[in-house]
Amino acid sequence: MRFYRGAVAAVLLLVAVSAAQTYHIVDQWKLGGQGGWDYLLSDDAAHLLYVTHNSRVEVVDTTTSKPIGAITGLKSTHGVALNPDGKTGYISDGAGNAIVVFNRKDFSILTTVPAGTNPDGITFEPATKTVWAFNGRSNNVSVLDTTSNTVVATVPLPGKPEFPQVDAHGAVFVNIEDKNEIVKLDAASRKAVATWPLQGCESPSGMAIDLAKHRLFSVCDGGKMAVVDYDTGKVLGLAAIGDSPDAASFDPKHALAFSSNGGDGTLTVVDSAKPDFPVLQTVKTEKGARTMAFDASTGRIYLVTAQFGPPTPATDAMPHPRRSVVPDSFKIIVVER
């Protein structure tokens, strides 16, 4: 009987531990408003979440779940990058063809700097103190000097750039969506120095980085995440993910890679510590939740989506338009373990 009770206790403990390690939705925060969205970014130290939303960037206090401000007056926001000085931020305004520099204290716009056509992914490069805005329609990258807030270089790319990452030592990496490639750029010389094919990876979009093991995680159509050694450009493996991903994140503490999949409304959790990169969990979120941000200070994952109506009318510029967004249905989905 003592053995039986001990076995039951062990099983219950195992179940409790397993449940504690399972990701699940813990909250939903309504933001409302109108229009579509793109990337979001967690400022872990300040406990703030920046969410690009149509012509504005919402700023949410993640300790209270309440919006505390917004950067407004833009045309079509895509991404946000933050200066480590704690004072300044940068927004890629796609339809405005500009990099918008803002004050992180009061969220006022400091200056608007012309960039290439439709800047999308954006990142701060710490070794050179520059901001790199990747222009999706002119197939190049605008390099902003953060001291003068001027574009000091425009670097050509072999195709349409998507999301970038930096290694903190002067290297910048970006997915090239229409060529199924990763391009490595040198921040000091402001030149492309390598191009790596992503075999088995179609239309790479979101990208995450593991600085300790020198790996990139590119999420792709066809339900694949390519894991790449960024020293050699070698594809180490392909993990199985959900449909229509647009963002990736990485948790260095637990060696987990994440993919947010808007097509089937899932979040894929991949174990990057094992050589075959197995999927640990597929979390059901909601359709449209294709972008996300990871907060390393709490382990939380934030995703955004909304309710959808019928598609907008097709045009020559957009023959296959997205479905319309129901006004005031925009929200943040909070996931944690």
Description:
With 337 residues, this protein is mainly beta. The chain folds into two domains: 25-38 and 200-337, Methylamine Dehydrogenase, Chain H (7 Propeller), CATH 2.130.10; 73-197, Methylamine Dehydrogenase, Chain H (7 Propeller). The chain has one helix at residues 2-20, and strands at residues 24-30, 37-43, 48-53, 56-61, 66-71, 77-82, 88-93, 98-103, 109-114, 119-125, 130-135, 140-145, 150-156, 161-166, 171-176, 181-186, 191-197, 207-210, 215-220, 224-229, 235-240, 245-251, 256-261, 266-271, 279-284, 292-295, 300-305, 308-311, 323-325, 331-336. Strands 1-30-27-26 form a four-stranded antiparallel sheet, with no helix packed on it. Strand 2 (37-43) and strand 3 form a beta hairpin. It is globular and about 45 Å long. The model is unreliable at 7-20 (pLDDT under 50).
